[in-house]
Amino acid sequence: xxxxxxxxxxxxxxxxxxxxxxxxxxxxxxxxxxxxxxxxxxxxxxxxxxxxxxxxxxxxxxxxxxxxxxxxxxxxxxxxxxxxxxxxxxxxxxxxxxxxxxxxxxxxxxxxxxxxxxxxxxxxxxxxxxxxxxxxxxxxxxxxxxxxxxxxxxxxxxxxxxxxxxxxxxxxxxxxxxxxxxxxxxxxxxxxxxxxxxxxxxxxxxxxxxxxxxxxxxxxxxxxxxxxxxxxxxxxxxxxxxxxxxxxxx
Amino acid sequence: xxxxxxxxxxxxxxxxxxxxxxxxxxxxxxxxxxxxxxxxxxxxxxxxxxxxxxxxxxxxxxxxxxxxxxxxxxxxxxxxxxxxxxxxxxxxxxxxxxxxxxxxxxxxxxxxxxxxxxxxxxxxxxxxxxxxxxxxxxxxxxxxxxxxxxxxxxxxxxxxxxxxxxxxxxxxxxxxxxxxxxxxxxxxxxxxxxxxxxxxxxxxxxxxxxxxxxxxxxxxxxxxxxxxxxxxxxxxxxxxxxxxxxxxxxxxxxxxxxxxxxxxxxxxxxxxxxxxxxxxxxxxxxxxxxxxxxxxxxxxxxxxxxxxxxxxxxxxxxxxxxxxxxx
Lengths: 250, 327
Known about the structure:
Strand order of the largest sheet of chain B: 1-4
Oligomer: heterodimer
InterPro entries (chain A): AAA+_ATPase, ABC_carbohydrate_import_ATPase, ABC_transporter-like_ATP-bd, ABC_transporter-like_CS, P-loop_NTPase
Largest interface: A-B, 30 and 24 residues
Keywords (chain A): ATP-binding, Nucleotide-binding
Protein name (chain A): Sugar ABC transporter ATP-binding protein
Pfam family, one (chain A): ABC_tran
Strand order of the largest sheet of chain A: 6-9-10-3-11-12
Radius of gyration of chain B: 21 Å
Helix content of chain B: over 70%
CATH topology of chain B: ABC transporter involved in vitamin B12 uptake, BtuC
Low-confidence stretches of chain B: 1-8
Mean pLDDT of chain B: 90
Mean pLDDT of chain A: 89
Organism (chain A): Mycetocola manganoxydans
CATH architecture of one domain in chain A: 3-Layer(aba) Sandwich
Largest sheet of chain B: 2 strands, antiparallel
Order of helices and strands of chain A: EEEHEEHEHEEHHEHEHEEH
Radius of gyration of chain A: 19 Å
Shape of chain A: globular
Number of helices of chain A: 8
Number of strands of chain B: 4
Structural class of chain A: alpha/beta
């Protein structure tokens, strides 16, 4: 997989925890401007693979290629610096803080110099507002506390934050798992908007209908390997189930 | 926001919400309302309470507690607690006394006082942030260690200090505002600025609000925790100067009352002990309230024995009220 279409490829990734071989040489690729879905049963190795891509785990062996460049991420911050943002299931938001504060958490904009540097509140608020409104129709006010937001709004904030740093790739772990029907639809809109803006999205989901609705390409994982790939337009939910359970060979 | 509220059924629920809003108003502003109420009651009961002389005395007396409450507020915002704060102040006071006795002069002695206090904060920070010892246990330990050190170094005897600079600090004033309360006010403004206008302050709130999320966003919770205990101890060192100035001596006393009142002031100020909700003005008003309470009771001739009782009741009431704060 050295096609220039691929923004990210992971080749032969292995990762063990003690005696448990979570990844046994998994390989996947993500194309530019596409939503790539990663599906598989619990324990198939999806989370471990995603954690390798976002810098939480270091692969034991294997290579990750980003934009044609060999990369390894020692920390999540390094992965971020390379343009890979992850929206974790817990969203990593601080409920007591306002939306704009969460948006810039850890990367605050400041003005002034030296010990007199102060938060550039005005700029942070307007930037957060713009990014959020570009992505989401139901955007909350940036000055409201995250505690007061609905689940979908929180998800939108977390996604907009991830996308807001000129990221090339946004990884989403079960973005709608905890949401109702309406909120799910809103978040799916957000994800589509993100894809249309040129960001490559890696979507981890248990929801086949959602995967079929949203993704362009699907990777199926089983027992630590990526056992199959399909274009979403050329497969069906039944086939995916068969691939996941191993009833159908790749 | 309006969307969410519109989705609520506008029946019994909304009327309860309106009522809760009213209670929450009282809960949010417990400290200022309590202070005003106390002032009204005491000025009715005692004609000398609202005299300029007494106001000036109260403000001077409140200065130490104000500084300690600000110090405690930083720690409590991260969800921690500093039980060693008054013992740290004692260490600072003894540090000043010993240096003064050794003839180091005011400035150097003051620097040594603040440094020796911040050393305790450094130990607290290392134990809690790096050693992952529970804040309660760690600072309980340093409370005892610091008290012991102060006793050992001073040989258990108070050190008389007759520094002209401290005399100016304790007796000088601008109008009714004595220098101690002015110093405390400057520290309060600086603390507010740091907490609400700098990256560091935002990180303090983030770590207190949700440590896991803060770390996931690249904030070092370890550094933030180290910093808040260091800040608290440094402020306790400054409070030590005010204490020595007020007493006229550096005493190896435990000063438990200051410890309890510093936590009480923060609770009165509406800060949740679970962390994440930062307030600076609230704890300052809380400190003023506790001082006014003690002062008023003394003026009324109430036995000193009743003062801890009164303080305790006020704090417990305030803690009950905070349950009704807006989430």
